[in-house]
Amino acid sequence: MDKFNDLEELIVEAREDSKLDITPNGKITQEISQNYCKDKQSDNNGSSCGCGNNNSKYCFSVAELKYKENGFEESPVVEVRFKGSRLGLYSNEDMLLLNVNDYVLVESENGTDIGVIASVGGVAGEKHRLCYAGKEIKQKIICPASSKDIEKYIRNSTEELAIIRKAKELVKQFDLDMKVADAEWQYDRQRLTIYFTAPMRIDFRELVKELARLFKTRIELRQISTREETKRLGNGIGCCGNNICCSLFLYDFCHVTLEHARVQQLSNNVSKLSGNCGRLKCCLLFEYDTYSDAFQKYPPLNSTVEFSDGISKITKVDVFKDIVYLYNSELSKHHSITYDELSQFISDGKVVVPETSEISKEELLLNDSNLIIDED
Q1: Where are the alpha helices (DSSP H) in the chain?
Q2: What is the pTM of this model?
Q3: Residue 246 lies in a domain
Q4: 126-159 burial string, b = 16+ CB within 10 Å, else e?
Q5: Which of 141, 203, 319, 337 has its CA 20 to 30 A from that of 8?
Q6: Structural domain for 308, as ranges
Q7: Tens of pLDDT, residues 269-299
Q8: Does the residue 122 lie in any domain?
Q9: Is 121 in contact with 98 (CB distance < 8 Å)?
């Protein structure tokens, strides 16, 4: 690329070169701001964000622009994305013309923050109703971010790596059993949030005092789960080849167990069932209800069916093709029948359902003792 169109790439570039001048009057911040503003001016038709990467968390799909002539909308509700894929809803009381991918200043609990527009118009309204359960919106959009605002955002972001390193040193100094995952400045520097993971509750009062003394601001230490840590790390790639769901579109983490994998007849394999975070994959829930409903009309696995040549046991069910697979241990023979044929056997009383499954849930969990089952 001849020039950087994505602000995230600019920040990474500034971080990687420690010799760059990132002071308020520094040359690099001026050049970054000028390039960014030029790119935004050339992008006012809303046809593309310019980064050429549809998987970027600051990009938007062509589908969102399909019915927009100029890309801007008067939207009473706006969804804003912050660092670490953190999302929030804000009211647009002044009915500003906003477009996906624009940077805006928003109200926060104790000051002002900066983020990028994730959705506007009808899309944001639907998300408010479905993903946020229609909760009351208490904060609003202040105004679009100016070039000076973006310069300040870049300076804050470049400092965060040094803050993480210093926080790790202090954690080691105070001998705390915790792992510093990320740091995030609020735009107005009224609050510094440090995210960490830990196996249990931590008494970090002395750590907070030292951090407050060093950075002269309000310090918030927030303990997160390993799922949340993976989400904040960025757009990792899952085994499906797509960005991991938590950083792409998930709004909340749900409880996932091996029971969800068992119902879908997935392989009891730790490496295949666990995601980038080391926990059971969130996507195990996506088709669980479909499989659960489809299996209602079938006898459970290990049910026996009486044939003319002996008794066979149900080993697998293909709900897409309506085929049942069986195994006759006496003849050492695998065979299959259709659902219609199985229904006839059920009508004739030749199908016997076992009282208990041969593989109990406790045994299933025991085999995967190295796999973390719970979310937290």
Answers
A1: 7-16, 27-41, 62-65, 121-130, 147-173, 205-215, 226-233, 245-248, 258-263, 270-273, 288-294, 339-347, 361-367
A2: 0.65
A3: no
A4: ebbeeebeeeebeeebbebbeeebbbbbbbbbbb
A5: 141
A6: 301-352
A7: 878 898 888 889 999 999 898 898 988 899 9
A8: yes
A9: no
